[in-house]
Amino acid sequence: MVERSEFIPIETLREEGFHSFASDSLLHKIYLIPALEQTDFALNGLVLENNSPGIIYHTIGVNGAKSSDYNKFPLFFEQLKTLTPDLVIISLGTNESFDKLVTADYFLQLSLMMETIVNQNPSVTILITTPCLHNLNESFPIRLWQIIPKKFWLKRS
Asked: What is the pTM of this model?
């Protein structure tokens, strides 16, 4: 068992929406424990980065979640802002495909999600991926490009 007295507290920099810590040397272990005086503790995420160039990839996913679920929780959008993303990929799957939501309401929720992401991250690009069209009603196949507002379309230079 590891005793609390073995830990050395670190000073973190409080920034908008998160705390950060930088180390000049490579760390092999990090232990996160609340201070003794804490009555609550919530860890909503952890980002480990280095100074090497390349892609920084973050993922979030909740089984059964749809865009309407993310829209219910403003904290998601606030935390996304702290990542300062260049690209947000929204992968819609079977949860949306078989939802009993009216089509107009579904696209309202998707548009609201995209609008909130852009409001928090004005220079972000959003890419939406979906499963193949399965034509539940073959007389009216739904194509995202026909319904998503044009302001979200990629502009070609």
From this structure: 0.72
